[in-house]
Specification:
The protein is mostly helical. Helices cover about 90% and strands about 0% of the residues.
């Protein structure tokens, strides 16, 4: 093999690895962006709920059991949504990591 041929192969390997890294980076960014968007959406709902409940406390000075339980349940639902969003992100990270691990073991195939 000539030195020029070896350099060409090295360049192709480097280019292929760089393309793979860019693809992985895009997947990571997309997954993270979707997660943050979902968390922000949940936080907006949660902040509105908290503001409305605080307004009731300040203005009404007393609340019914139903109002308190409704607020309690809304906190739980928001927590569940954040937990679910985290699980979705973790699944996506695991998928990406599994893909890269498999690709690396197969010589980048």
């Amino acid at each position: 093999m000539t030195e020029t041929t070896q350099h060409q192969e090295d360049d192709e390997d480097f280019s292929s690895a760089a393309d793979e890294h860019l693809s992985i980076a895009r997947q990571l960014l997309d997954a993270h962006r979707m997660h943050v968007d979902k968390i922000m959406e949940t936080l907006r709902v949660e902040m509105d709920s908290m503001r409305d409940f605080e307004h009731k406390i300040m203005n009404d000075k007393k609340l019914s059991e139903e109002e308190v339980l409704t607020y309690f349940e809304s906190i739980g639902l928001c927590l569940d949504q954040r937990t679910s969003s985290g699980e979705v992100l973790q699944d996506e990270l695991d998928r990406i990591a599994g893909t890269t691990t498999t690709d690396s073991r197969n010589g980048g195939e």
